[in-house]
Amino acid sequence: GPLVEVAELTVRYGAATALDRVSLTVGVGELVALVGPNGAGKSTLVDTLSGILVPASGSVTVRGRLAHVPEGRQVFGDLSVEDNLRLGGWRIGERDTAAVYAVLPALTELRRRRAGLLSGGEQQMVAVGRALMSRPDVLVIDELSLGLAPLVVADLVRHLRELNAWRGVAVLLIEQNARLALDLCSRAYVLEAGRIVAEGTSAELAASS
Ligand code: ADP
Ligand code: ADP
């Protein structure tokens, strides 16, 4: 079956329903987007995938390892890029950063730099690299483009495509920026007020919007 399978998922905060019978899948090696405005329920879905929130009903199945790149270029600013990467591997005892440099070559030149002094796009790449250290089957990336210039985002998207092609890592991209999502991903789901209101290939969604 798919790597990530969300079936008829309902999540509530007290009496408020944040997700209402949401279903989605991410297959092996797929690039899938979840698009929606603020308050749609995107964070709630990610927190349920991570096991932080418990569903009221429905189910979440993750077959394989999931890594999460949180919103906001979260790096350890006082540490070098290399040490930021190593921290990403501590759970599985992974210390070898070579595979990450191979797939994100731009990080190689930055390896001794202090992460806090890098540009926003570079920090976002470090955050992706750190997540890769756990050798995930699927990467959940929150708001990749937030606060970044379009050219920087284009560069990150290129790296993600290469990553996907080279390693077969699946990506679930959580985005407010529908254009970016449709550009990178082969399939997308549109979430509004806790419900999936549209889904399809990028071409289908672009034609209907
Ligand atoms: P998004 O990530 O798409 O902005 P969220 O998942 O953060 O959306 O929020 C979905 C809905 O759930 C919103 O109406 C939000 O106000 C509500 N919500 C989120 N977190 C909580 C919480 N801890 N308690 C109560 N309501 C919450
Ligand atoms: P995001 O930008 O990821 O959508 P938010 O800014 O909506 O996150 O929420 C930040 C934090 O506040 C989260 O922990 C979320 O659960 C919580 N939160 C969001 N909406 C509400 C709400 N209506 N009541 C209580 N907590 C909320």
From TrEMBL:
GO molecular function: ATP binding; ATP hydrolysis activity; branched-chain amino acid transmembrane transporter activity
Keywords tagged on the record: Amino-acid transport, ATP-binding, Nucleotide-binding, Transport
Xref: PROSITE patterns: ABC_TRANSPORTER_1, ABC_TRANSPORTER_2
Xref: Gene3D superfamilies: P-loop containing nucleotide triphosphate hydrolases (3.40.50.300)
One annotated GO biological process: L-amino acid transport
Zinc found in the keyword field: no
All residue ranges annotated as the ABC transporter domain in the record: 4-209
Xref: InterPro entries: AAA+_ATPase, ABC_transporter-like_ATP-bd, ABC_transporter-like_CS, BCAA_Transport_ATP-bd_LivF, P-loop_NTPase
Similarity-based family: Belongs to the ABC transporter superfamily.
Name of this protein: ABC transporter ATP-binding protein
Organism: Actinophytocola xanthii
Lineage: Bacteria, Bacillati, Actinomycetota, Actinomycetes, Pseudonocardiales
